[in-house]
Amino acid sequence: MAPGIPPKGKCIALAVWLAIMVPAMGGHAHGEDRALLVGVGRYAQLDARLSGVSLDIQMMTEFARLLGFESNAIKVLAHEEASTRQVVAAVEDWLIEGVGPDDRVLFYFSGHGSQIPDASKDENDAFDEVLLLYDAAIEQQARHPTLTGVLVDDAFSAMLARMRSRNILVILDACHSGSATRSLQLNPRSFRVDGAQVKFFSYSASIEAAGGRGRFDVMEPPNPGAADDNYVVLTACRDDEKTIATAQGSIFTLGLRQVVRSAAMTGDPITPEALRRQATEFIREQIRSDTVRFHPQIAGNTDLRKRPLQLVSLGEGSGFVRQEMETLVRKSHETIWIELNKSCFEIGDPLEISLWIPEPGHLNIISVDADDQGTVLFPNQYHPRSSVKRGRITIPGVHRNYELTAEGKTGPHQISAFLTRSPLNAYANGFRTPTDVLARLSPLASRSLALRQKQEGLAAGRVTTHIRQDGHCRQIHTLNPR
Q1: How far apart are CA 471 and CA 474, in angstroms?
Q2: Where are the beta strands (DSSP E) in 318-468?
Q3: Which residues fall within 8 angstroms of residue 201, CB to CB, at 6 or more apart?
Q4: Out of 178-187, 276-285, 354-363, which region has the weakest mean confidence (pLDDT)?
């Protein structure tokens, strides 16, 4: 049931697609495809906490699955697991040694970026760009501050050069130069953000004062656009802009997820150029700020920019959001009885949901449609509180001044109810504009449900129904009379 409805700084949040080529003949199966997802939202020795990085990892796991990577081919290193030693070892063992020329590789990083003095003297601006790993620390070298526990762009480029794969996608969501701004106030269009953060770590006045253009080496190939480059680079913003982390996830990563999910739902091909363009539209729609704007950029092989990415087709009832909801219901410790007012719905039919609540708590009802789009049916604009008492309830209920109707794409719709002991409000945490009665399920809301399931257990129930074209339910009733 879908709603009627989501100082200078140089930053880089980039996607490098090396040789996005599916063999024209032979039907090669990617048996050794490998993905490595790294997210650092807290640091052992630095006061540099970032919101939403765990959500970035969750979204990029879905992103990888939509690109056809199997679950057992996706390795995640998050927070404490993402030390320099562990990340370098995973790149060596998992990506360099673990894949062949015809296998695909995905590397993703979300966290802080920064710059350090260039020890090798190969940078025009005298600084190396770095990604901060969990053990990042500030040290003095030659009487100047620098960072250790980082992945330097030179070393990262050398790692890429040693990978045998001809199909490598790298996504880096981090800033590599900027000001000391720790938080920003944004007014996103369709989700709540209490505070936003620039993904750049400032530790030295000389770094800020230098004003260099902080770019990872892979962003500056010797012959831009050349046929032998075999890669495409997507950056979240220009060099004089900043990329942003929020409690709902990083804005660029949210945009990439949205674009790829939409392409997989519709079955439409998506090229790197279209990915950049549509991510730009997402950012422009979401960010309403006079001080923060950023625009994804594209570089690399001209032909590959126009070549569609390989995506998994989402058939009816096979989406990842649906699977996530099914898993939460299956793992629940207690059952919620749930029943609908009809077994078959046509577009516009009123929907009523009856439930038996086993104990007082906080109720959230999620509908997932045939396109794998999750919608929060309860709470909603007319009933914004999630708290409920024990006993039978009906939503909307006879005393409510609103009604729910069957809307959205025809096909199977799964409606799941979740009861938690501690407060949880998927409507407040969902994607919605001020005028939307219902909210779309956000990664933050679904992750919150998963965390409650692990911490305190859930009571849950679900029912599956169908929305059909006008007149089709009557035909079914005629063919199957009671």
Answers
A1: 5
A2: 334-335, 337-340, 344-346, 350-351, 353-357, 361-368, 374-378, 387-388, 391-395, 404-405, 411-420, 439-440, 459-468
A3: 46, 48, 112, 113, 114, 132, 136, 147
A4: 178-187
Q: pTM score, two decimals?
A: 0.86
327 & 432 share domain: yes
Tokens of residue 431, six digits: 């994607």
Q: Can you give the residue range of the structural domain that contains 136?
A: 10-305
Last residue of one domain, picked from the residues 258, 280, 305: 305
Domain final position from 275, 305, 335: 305
Nearest to 390 by CA among 459, 454, 315: 459
Condensed to tens digits (0 to 9), the pLDDT of residues 32-52 reads 899 999 999 999 999 999 999
Same domain for 238 and 360: no
Residue entry with tokens 């969990």: 134
Can you read off the two tokens belonging to residue 358? 């086993």
How many domains is the chain built from?
2
User: Which element (helix H / strand E) includes 106?
Assistant: strand 104-110
Structure tokens, 142? 């030659």
